[in-house]
Amino acid sequence: MKKIGFDSEKYIEEQSAYILERVHHYDKLYLEFGGKLVDDKHAKRVLPGFEEDAKIKLLQKLRDQAEILICVYAGDIERNKIRGDYGITYDMDILRLIDELRGYGLSINSVVITRYNGQPATKVFINKLERRNIKVYKHAEIEDYPINVEKIVSEEGFGKNEYIETTKPIVVVTAPGPGSGKLATCLNQLYHESQKGNAAGYSKFETFPVWNVPLKHPLNIAYEAATVDLKDVNMIDSFHFDAYNKVAVNYNRDIETFPVIKRIIEKITGKESVYQSPTDMGVNRVGFGITDDEVVQEASKQEIIRRYFQTACDFKKGLTDEDAVNRIKLIMEEVGLRPEDRKVVTPAHEYAKTSQATSTESMAVIAIELPDQVILTGRTSQLMDASAAVVLNAIKYLAHISDDIPLLSPLVLETIQGLKSKALHSSIDTLNLNEVLIALSISAVTNPIAQVAYEKLAELEGAQAHSTVMINKNDEQNLKQLGIDITSAPVYPSENLYYQ
């Protein structure tokens, strides 16, 4: 049974009340949402009991008073920047986000393209949005932002960017990832609201780091592990300590930029800022939802190990630099963790050692730990890959089906292999997880045993798994969609450069 360390309902109630309290001071509050608005799986992993759609439920409580702006940096569209957890580009993620938010009954005001200067791929994306009746605003890059306050807060700065027409007292500003221009969009709006004589305010809703837990708490260190590529470092908020003689945790970028942001806000409003520290700017109450600190600490340590493997694999793929690898190793040392402290790592590699592999291939084995703490394995064979094998083994165990009873007809699987190799001319005929799950769902219609196993797929939610080699992107996404937290050793499965 999974241990719970966080009260999501208490958090949502307290968080919504705190935001509404902040809104009462202004005609309009621009609320910058950091992190993931939908499917916050990092928070779910490090705060057992946190619902990954908690922020959406929060917004649903406020939906009569809130509308949403989505920002994206034009340069991220141009270089096809990928959102790692979904494996899709930022422009596609915006389309996904709009669909999901609409599905929750939330109001989407518009998409804001930041630092736009006519980039070709971005033009295509703008056309796509506008032809689907999504309003788009374009903001140009402001030279010397955010240093030259005089220029920024003038007709040559924010004044040359479009004012975004909004109608509700809370304007949530979100984005598919960091560096998308959320803060600049909020400040741009403050400038134009001030020009119109409206009293508008700015606040930041950033879940991590958690300001009211200790600096070196594993929960906050897990945030550093998740952002090694951004080089974020948690720090004591010196501004907060100086103003109130109280310790609060923030991160380097917010602390470094606070003085200039404060000056910009004061220049816009013409009066002294109500904020004495970057922590003051925040509205996050997540720390008050923790109910079992020991559970949260252990979950956070496991997340640090997962991030260690992810960073090592990203480096192997050329997606990050050596600094990130060195940083995650230091974090592991700081917390006193080893890769083997993830329970599924050793069983996977021990089973791989006992299996036969060619001189040019590493044996692909995946070990999975089920919610009852039983660990099972699956390996790649001529018929199916390790991801498919381990999932079948897991649901057979959960359904109490004997190992020697096949869930799928060998004839069906061989027919699918023939389709791949002969009709579709694929150089790899080993069946992947998606293909095996489709075969299972079809077999479940006529095979009662397959039906029982098929119904157990939902029980894989929260399972932990580790692969001895890097698995392909499709298998990785399918495992994540099943709710399985998968890590991989930074090893390619073969010497092939394209076909993996």
UniProtKB/TrEMBL annotation:
Domain DUF1846 residue range list: 4-335, 340-498
Pfam families: DUF1846 (PF08903), DUF1846_C (PF20921)
InterPro entries registered for this protein in UniProt: DUF1846 (IPR014999), DUF1846_C (IPR048441), DUF1846_N (IPR048496)
Entry protein name: ATP-dependent Zn protease
Source organism per UniProt: Enterococcus mundtii
Lineage: Bacteria, Bacillati, Bacillota, Bacilli, Lactobacillales
